[in-house]
Structure formats: structure tokens, C-alpha cells
């Protein structure tokens, strides 16, 4: 199974309007946001974990400064996901979810 944070668009197991930010080039996530807004989504959620949080924030900066001047951040959620490593240890990975609207 591939890492879910690698996808630019939503998979069949995620909710509509959710973009999982991974290590792909930032412009992929910018394009995904623009596409979802153009398809009629009122809210687009960018979700990133761990070292990919910076890529998420950079995508939003590019969107606001270059493509969607009326972009608004309606909500931000942060937290930690707990994972069990193959050796049985538990690992916590930080995540951020940023809710975007046009307005």
C-alpha cells in the first residue's frame, strides 16, 4: 500500500475536498486546490503530516500570492497521529489540517 500522504487528489477512502500533502512538488498541491475550487468545492482541506507540513504551508502561500487572491483560511486543526512501528514501538507524528474557502 502506498503512503496516503503522497496523493495530490483524494482517494476513494478520503472525504471530498481533502488534499493529502506529501513530498511531491508544491505546484501539484496548488493545482489540486485550484481544480477542486473550479469544480465547485466550497471548502478545500489541505492535510499534511510531519516533514510535509512545510510543503502544505508553501502551497497555501503560493495560492494566496499568485493564484487566488480572495483565498481565506477558515480553520486550522493541529494534532498528533499515533503509529505502531514494526518493532512494536509507538511513534507520534504531528499533522496540520488547513481549511480553505474562497471569499
What features would you describe in this structure?
This protein has 103 residues and is an alpha+beta fold. It has one domain (4-102): 2-Layer Sandwich (Translation Initiation Factor IF3), CATH 3.30.110.20. Helices cover 27% and strands 37% of the residues. The protein is built from two helices and four strands, in the order βαβαββ. It has helices at 26-38, 53-67; strands at 18-21, 43-49, 71-84, 90-102. A four-stranded mixed sheet has the order 1-2-4-3. Helix 1 (26-38) crosses helix 2.
Helix content percent band: 25-40%
Residues in β-strands, percent? 35-45%
Per the principal axes of the C-alpha atoms, what is the gross shape?
elongated
CATH level 3 topology: Translation Initiation Factor IF3
**What are the secondary-structure elements, in order, as H or E?**
EHEHEE
In short:
The chain has 103 residues and is of the alpha+beta class. The protein is built from two helices and four strands; from the N terminus they run βαβαββ.
Which secondary structure elements does this structure contain, and how are they paired or packed?
Blueprint: E1 18-21, H1 26-38, E2 43-49, H2 53-67, E3 71-84, E4 90-102
Parallel strand pairs: 1-2
Antiparallel strand pairs: 2-4, 3-4
Keywords:
alpha+beta, 27% helix, 4-stranded mixed beta sheet, 37% strand, Translation Initiation Factor IF3, 103 residues
